[in-house]
Design goal:
The chain has 269 residues and is mainly alpha-helical. The protein contains eleven helices and two strands, in the order H-H-H-E-E-H-H-H-H-H-H-H-H. Helix 4 packs antiparallel against helix 7 and helix 6 packs antiparallel against helix 7. The longest helix is centred in the N-terminal third of the chain and has 49 residues.
Length: 269
């Protein structure tokens, strides 16, 4: 073999090796991206079902069954469950089983207490520190919430409500209070879903209210005391309405007066 042929063949071998390495790397990246998309899809679907209560609190989430349902391996399913666990929507137990997180109704008064404190302080800070651009963001989020209400889309309502209040928190310029507030709002989205459902079905309650726009006006005017008062009232309205939802008497149209029925039977006989 001539030196020229040997060198040429060496170049071809190295080129072939580089091509194989590039192909393997490309396949690895494609698998990684596919896995990322798969995990995101599972996460989005399960989160939607949990927030809308299609998956009831305490329901088991079996990785094998979910893998079959979504037609993918257990790795992206596991990744989605870990992410949901970090958001407090599922509970991963020590025996490797996973459940939809329960809703702590007994702790609701303490939840509202914490929500009230964080809502008030973040709204006060927003009134002190806001920019004109942040006021525009709040108005856009308030409009998005109203649009979701007009379409009776509870999932969109809870999402846009979250976005509105987080826009206020961002304007407050305290990332620690903003993060704590965001976690509390996220934990309460299933309760909020039931709250919206009750309002939509009620003959006396209304989904839409001027609360969001009143808060924006106070923040725009840098009126800290009014912003604080409105934030507190907003929390109290949520609390009072949810308490009415929990105590709703769905049997008020039925007559269980046995004495009336007995009298009617005696009259007929």
């Amino acid at each position: 073999m001539s030196i020229k042929t040997w060198i040429s063949s060496g170049f071809r071998r190295r080129a072939l090796c580089r091509g194989m390495r590039n192909m393997v790397e490309s396949q690895r990246l494609q698998q990684k991206h596919a896995k990322g998309r798969g995990a995101r899809f599972v996460y989005d679907e399960l989160k939607r079902e949990i927030l809308t209560l299609a998956l009831k609190p305490g329901s088991p989430l079996d990785e094998t069954s979910l893998s079959g349902r979504f037609a993918m391996s257990r790795s992206p399913v596991r990744e989605a469950l870990v992410r949901l666990s970090a958001e407090g929507l599922v509970v991963m137990l020590s025996n490797r089983s996973t459940l939809v997180a329960p809703i702590d109704f007994a702790g609701f008064p303490r939840y509202v207490e914490a929500l009230d404190f964080l809502q008030r302080i973040n709204t006060r800070l927003a009134a002190q520190n806001r920019t004109d651009g942040e006021i525009q963001t709040m108005s856009r989020m308030a409009n998005a919430f109203d649009n979701a209400c007009s379409e009776n889309d509870y999932l969109a309502m809870s999402a846009t409500n979250y976005d509105f209040h987080m826009a206020i928190a961002a304007a407050g310029r305290n990332p620690y209070l903003e993060r704590a507030y965001g976690q509390l709002l996220a934990e309460g989205r299933r309760i909020l879903h039931m709250h919206f459902e009750y309002l939509a079905a009620s003959a006396t309650e209304h989904l839409l209210s001027p609360d969001h726009y009143d808060m924006i006006d106070a923040i725009r005017a840098r009126d800290v005391l009014t912003a604080d008062k409105l934030a507190h009232n907003h929390t109290r309205h949520f609390h009072d309405r949810f308490v009415r939802f929990m105590s709703a008497n769905y049997s008020e149209d039925f007559d269980f007066d046995l004495s009336t029925r007995e009298r009617a039977i005696n009259t007929d006989t």
